[in-house]
Amino acid sequence: MSYDRIAVIGAGAWGTALASVAARAGRTVTLQARDMPSAARLARTRESPHLPGLPLEECVTVTADPGAAADADAILLVVPAQALRHVATALSSAVKPATPVISCAKGIERSTGAFMTEVIAACMPQAKPAVLSGPGFAADVMRGLPTAVTLAAADADLAAALAQALGSATFRPYHTTDVRGVEIGGAAKNVLAIAAGIVAGRGLGASAGAALVTRGFAELMRFGRACGAQPETLVGLSGLGDLVLSCSSPQSRNFALGVGLGEGQRLAQAQGKLVEGVFTASALVKMAGERGVEIPVAAAVDAVLDNRLSIDAAIESLMTRPLRGEC
To answer: Which end of the chain is more exposed for a tag (fewer CB within 10 A), N or C?
Structure first.
């Protein structure tokens, strides 16, 4: 399959950017917005309100028709992690058998602890689940700045074909069969980016920031291994690469939320937009506990978000943990 007809479900910043990516790769692209007013506005202005001044590729068709996915050779599902089950269920009857459905959300379903490809498999049993993740900000991608990501599917030939369908001179998808590793990197880094933001917002210094990211990555590795992820994936674009990006820039919603919390804002004040890490933290901590994996940085973030610990108490709890060998 050449996957010439691509449907992108979700016209937020990342969905709009990925629609342009697919168009630049020479595909016929339909971008589905959540409702008719949103679709009409985007079709008229050709600019997402989330990405002002960055026009959508002219050849992208914008619609609110839920049947837009029916004729697609492949579907990019670009909706928040906690909404993915609802959207996948609504789309299921329209999707042709064996159609690849690529999750572009970075999270874990809070109510079930399910990864996004597991949700797709449950709600769309006729589809072929895949996942796209890695270090890329929507604005950079819309500008056509060089970006590399990872695309994973259980079938190696499918993963390679999908990467070929989306790749261009400015967007380079590497492919792998390590679906779980790609999903863990994308989900865990959001929680750790909140922690990095808290360190920055609290003014704890660059040394503390470097230590936080390094020890957070050790947690990501431990959790990933316990879930069967490949180490090569976790140190790759969708693991370490995305962690470095998200923990170092205010463009990251998770990092920006952490900065606000570190500066003394309440969660409701700091969370101006959807922040995936807020929902993922508790699920990640629960799953790690079930596997006997210690993730103290993520656990501290979860405790802060849940008001079980103040930020100062959380920092003290991390700094006074028993001394041990580095691993």
So the answer is: C
- For the chain, residues with pLDDT lower than 70 are none
pLDDT tens-digit profile of 151-191? Answer: 999 999 999 999 999 999 999 999 999 999 999 999 999 99
Query: Could you tell me the pTM of the whole model?
Result: 0.95
List 96, 128, 189, 286, catalytic entry: 189
The pLDDT value recorded for residue 327 is 74
| 3-state SS, one letter per residue, for the chain | CCCCEEEEECCCHHHHHHHHHHHHCCCEEEEECCCHHHHHHHHHHCECCCCCCCECCCCCEEECCHHHHHHCCEEEECCCHHHHHHHHHHHHHHCCCCCEEEECCCCECCCCCCEHHHHHHHHCCCCEEEEEECCCCHHHHHCCCCEEEEEEECCHHHHHHHHHHHCCCCEEEEEECCHHHHHHHHHHHHHHHHHHHHHHHCCCCHHHHHHHHHHHHHHHHHHHHHCCCCHHHHCCHHHHHHHHHHCCCCCCHHHHHHHHHHCCCCHHHHCCCCCHHHHHHHHHHHHHHHCCCCCHHHHHHHHHHCCCCCHHHHHHHHHCCCCCCCC
Phi-psi sector, 190: left (phi>0), alpha (psi -120 to 50), beta: alpha
Q: How many CA atoms lie within 13 A of 122 on its CB side?
A: 12
What pLDDT sits at residue 322?
87
Confidence at residue 272, expressed as pLDDT on a 0 to 100 scale: 73
**Predicted pLDDT of residue 324:** 85
pLDDT at 112: 95
Can you give the pLDDT at residue 228? Answer: 96
